[in-house]
Design a protein that fits this description.
Length: 145
Protein backbone atom coordinates (compact mmCIF):
# COMPACT_ATOMS: atom_id res chain seq x y z
CA UNK A 1 0.00 0.00 0.00
CA UNK A 2 2.83 2.41 0.75
CA UNK A 3 3.92 2.29 -2.88
CA UNK A 4 0.57 3.44 -4.26
CA UNK A 5 -0.65 5.55 -1.33
CA UNK A 6 1.39 8.64 -2.36
CA UNK A 7 0.00 8.42 -5.90
CA UNK A 8 -3.59 8.17 -4.65
CA UNK A 9 -2.99 11.14 -2.37
CA UNK A 10 -1.33 13.21 -5.10
CA UNK A 11 -3.82 12.44 -7.86
CA UNK A 12 -7.07 12.20 -5.94
CA UNK A 13 -6.86 13.50 -2.37
CA UNK A 14 -4.89 16.70 -3.00
CA UNK A 15 -7.10 17.47 -5.99
CA UNK A 16 -10.19 17.22 -3.77
CA UNK A 17 -11.69 14.31 -5.70
CA UNK A 18 -11.61 11.80 -2.85
CA UNK A 19 -11.00 11.58 0.86
CA UNK A 20 -8.64 8.96 2.26
CA UNK A 21 -9.72 7.52 5.61
CA UNK A 22 -7.82 4.95 7.62
CA UNK A 23 -9.86 2.76 9.94
CA UNK A 24 -8.15 0.51 12.43
CA UNK A 25 -8.83 -3.21 12.60
CA UNK A 26 -7.21 -4.78 15.64
CA UNK A 27 -6.85 -8.23 14.12
CA UNK A 28 -3.39 -9.13 15.45
CA UNK A 29 -3.88 -8.77 19.20
CA UNK A 30 -1.34 -6.79 21.17
CA UNK A 31 0.69 -5.93 18.04
CA UNK A 32 -2.30 -4.32 16.36
CA UNK A 33 -3.25 -2.45 19.51
CA UNK A 34 0.24 -1.06 20.13
CA UNK A 35 0.81 -0.13 16.48
CA UNK A 36 -2.59 1.56 16.29
CA UNK A 37 -1.91 3.40 19.54
CA UNK A 38 1.42 4.63 18.15
CA UNK A 39 -0.29 6.01 15.07
CA UNK A 40 -3.11 7.55 17.12
CA UNK A 41 -0.73 9.15 19.63
CA UNK A 42 1.40 10.53 16.79
CA UNK A 43 -1.83 11.61 15.10
CA UNK A 44 -2.69 13.71 18.15
CA UNK A 45 0.23 15.86 17.07
CA UNK A 46 -0.56 15.72 13.33
CA UNK A 47 1.84 12.87 12.48
CA UNK A 48 -0.54 9.94 11.94
CA UNK A 49 0.55 9.15 8.39
CA UNK A 50 4.22 9.44 9.25
CA UNK A 51 3.86 6.91 12.08
CA UNK A 52 1.64 4.73 9.91
CA UNK A 53 4.49 4.57 7.39
CA UNK A 54 7.16 3.82 10.01
CA UNK A 55 5.11 0.99 11.52
CA UNK A 56 4.14 -0.43 8.12
CA UNK A 57 7.73 -0.36 6.88
CA UNK A 58 8.90 -2.03 10.12
CA UNK A 59 6.40 -4.90 10.24
CA UNK A 60 9.15 -7.52 10.51
CA UNK A 61 10.59 -5.74 13.56
CA UNK A 62 7.14 -5.45 15.14
CA UNK A 63 6.46 -9.16 14.61
CA UNK A 64 9.89 -10.04 16.00
CA UNK A 65 9.34 -8.05 19.19
CA UNK A 66 7.83 -9.59 22.32
CA UNK A 67 4.53 -8.18 23.57
CA UNK A 68 6.32 -6.86 26.67
CA UNK A 69 8.69 -4.79 24.50
CA UNK A 70 6.18 -3.39 22.01
CA UNK A 71 5.61 -0.16 23.92
CA UNK A 72 9.35 0.55 23.98
CA UNK A 73 9.55 -0.21 20.27
CA UNK A 74 6.73 2.23 19.51
CA UNK A 75 8.51 4.91 21.54
CA UNK A 76 11.65 4.21 19.52
CA UNK A 77 9.63 4.60 16.32
CA UNK A 78 8.48 7.99 17.60
CA UNK A 79 12.07 9.21 17.70
CA UNK A 80 12.25 8.68 13.93
CA UNK A 81 9.62 11.35 13.20
CA UNK A 82 10.95 14.90 12.93
CA UNK A 83 8.79 17.35 14.84
CA UNK A 84 7.05 14.80 17.05
CA UNK A 85 7.11 15.95 20.68
CA UNK A 86 8.45 12.69 22.08
CA UNK A 87 7.52 13.18 25.74
CA UNK A 88 3.89 13.95 24.89
CA UNK A 89 3.87 10.96 22.57
CA UNK A 90 5.47 8.71 25.23
CA UNK A 91 2.89 9.80 27.82
CA UNK A 92 0.04 9.04 25.41
CA UNK A 93 1.43 5.55 24.85
CA UNK A 94 2.13 4.86 28.51
CA UNK A 95 -1.31 6.04 29.62
CA UNK A 96 -2.91 4.11 26.74
CA UNK A 97 -5.17 7.12 26.32
CA UNK A 98 -6.31 6.14 22.82
CA UNK A 99 -7.02 2.43 23.32
CA UNK A 100 -10.73 2.66 24.17
CA UNK A 101 -11.40 4.78 21.08
CA UNK A 102 -9.42 2.32 18.94
CA UNK A 103 -11.29 -0.66 20.37
CA UNK A 104 -14.61 1.08 19.70
CA UNK A 105 -13.52 1.74 16.09
CA UNK A 106 -12.54 -1.92 15.75
CA UNK A 107 -15.95 -2.99 17.09
CA UNK A 108 -17.63 -0.71 14.55
CA UNK A 109 -15.56 -2.20 11.71
CA UNK A 110 -16.38 -5.73 12.81
CA UNK A 111 -20.09 -4.87 12.93
CA UNK A 112 -19.72 -3.95 9.25
CA UNK A 113 -18.12 -7.32 8.49
CA UNK A 114 -14.56 -5.97 8.26
CA UNK A 115 -12.20 -8.21 10.21
CA UNK A 116 -8.94 -7.99 8.26
CA UNK A 117 -6.75 -5.55 6.37
CA UNK A 118 -6.38 -4.14 3.87
CA UNK A 119 -9.89 -3.51 2.63
CA UNK A 120 -10.63 -0.50 0.47
CA UNK A 121 -14.11 0.97 0.20
CA UNK A 122 -14.66 3.02 -2.92
CA UNK A 123 -18.14 4.24 -3.71
CA UNK A 124 -19.83 1.41 -1.82
CA UNK A 125 -17.59 -1.26 -3.34
CA UNK A 126 -15.07 -3.22 -1.30
CA UNK A 127 -11.71 -4.30 -2.63
CA UNK A 128 -9.97 -6.95 -0.55
CA UNK A 129 -6.20 -7.21 -0.25
CA UNK A 130 -3.40 -5.16 -1.75
CA UNK A 131 -4.33 -3.52 -5.03
CA UNK A 132 -2.31 -1.97 -7.82
CA UNK A 133 -2.51 1.73 -8.54
CA UNK A 134 -4.21 0.95 -11.86
CA UNK A 135 -6.94 -1.06 -10.12
CA UNK A 136 -7.52 1.59 -7.45
CA UNK A 137 -7.51 4.38 -10.03
CA UNK A 138 -9.97 2.53 -12.27
CA UNK A 139 -12.40 2.06 -9.37
CA UNK A 140 -12.05 5.68 -8.29
CA UNK A 141 -12.58 6.93 -11.85
CA UNK A 142 -15.66 4.74 -12.21
CA UNK A 143 -17.17 6.17 -9.04
CA UNK A 144 -16.33 9.74 -10.07
CA UNK A 145 -18.24 9.42 -13.37
Amino acid sequence: MLAIEPLIIENYVHTGKVRLVFRDVLNHGERSERASEAAACAGNQGYFWEMHSVVFESQDVVWGTSNDSLSDLMIQFGTQIDGLEIETYRQCLEERSTIEKLRAADDEQRSRGITSQPIFEIGGHRLFGLQSYDTMSAWIEEVLK
